[in-house]
Amino acid sequence: MTELVGCARWAWNKGLDRCLKLLDSGERIPGQTAITYWVKEFRDNPEHAFLKTSYTDNLQQKLRDLSLAWQRYFDPKLEASRPVFKKKHVDSDNSIRFVNFSKYCKIDNRRVKLPGGLGWCRFRKSRNIAGKIKNCTITRNAGHWFISFQVEQKVEQLAHPSTREVGIDMGVAKFVTLSDGTSIKPLNIYRKYEQRLAKEQRRLAKKVKFSNNWRKQKQRITRLHSKIAHCRNDFLHKASTEISKNHAMIVIEDLRTKNMSRSAKGTIDAPGTNVKAKSGLNKSILDQGWYEFRRQLEYKQAWLGGDVLAVPAHHTSQTCPACDHVSPDNRKTQANFTCVQCGHQDNADRVAAINILARGRRVLACGESSLDDSMKQEPVLPREGLAPSAAIAA
């Protein structure tokens, strides 16, 4: 499996290098079908004799993934990152896919027969496989091998078991706050292992690069990163499942996490301010996994027959839900909200969630035009001396 994964990684890197050269010369990147034909050229080259031991479908699927990555990159709606070269010793980038499962593969309870010289392999069956298996993907992560099956099922249009709607405000002090007043505490799993991770990385820095002890230490760090990611993913799944199954309509903020976690270091000519505080805030923001939480909500609601609506997040915590008065003075502290016009008091995060839900209702009732007036308002700048976290929350 290591050999097959290595050949697939090589095909990705070779294909990416050719695509970059085409872009540099002013040419366009060919379509998906043309890119997959590069596999035959790679295998027929005498210099690439090691590819003879690879499985052709694995290479074609890897180039197909490369083509899809370029399509996402050129789609302005997705704001996807540019495809990058895959490293040999990064486990999360190493995977292979076997297509035409019914023709080339077999499954017998906890055993699966795979082509490419693998034969029968045992695996831990975490759940029953329902539906017709179309393909399977093998991934290596932190020294462990995982197999996942993609199945085809006939699913009727479902009606969500709940009829409730909710607005969600996401933050750092509280992971999410619902418009009904309930909240979920953040896991902050990276903060829990941050000192241990720094200690292991200092040990790595003292070892001879690429030596056996260096590789062992690097594997320890990889396992620790994997543990952090798995804990965060488990937390997000539990939270998203609980919210999704109890609400048919979920309205969330359309957050730009990449912009919110941008460094405040600045340049030599224009150095930034509060760099250390902003760096700590960036760590806390990225530790929450807001994008992954949104992604999970969207596909789980699609399964259950519900819906997820993303609305602009501007002024949600500065707008009074009682009189619609907008002012930065409404939120003088991070936690408390007091309207300077009507005197309405509440928790600031709950106020934001209520405004998010109301904004979602207006979009459903009147379309995007309902937000045009509020979008044209002059931006409300944070007061002087406001902490970076409060400025972003505002």
Automatic annotation (TrEMBL):
InterPro entries tied to this protein: Cas12f1-like_TNB, RNA-guided_DNA_endo/Transpos, Transposase
Keywords tagged on the record: DNA recombination, DNA-binding, Transposition
Domain Probable transposase IS891/IS1136/IS1341, residue spans: 148-263
Pfam family, one: Cas12f1-like_TNB
Region: Disordered, residue numbers: 375-394
Any single GO BP term: DNA recombination
Domain of life of the native organism: Bacteria
GO molecular-function term, one example from the UniProt record: DNA binding
Claim: DNA-binding is one of the keywords in the record: yes
Domain Cas12f1-like TNB: 290-356
Record family assignment: In the C-terminal section; belongs to the transposase 35 family.
Name of this chain's protein: Putative transposase
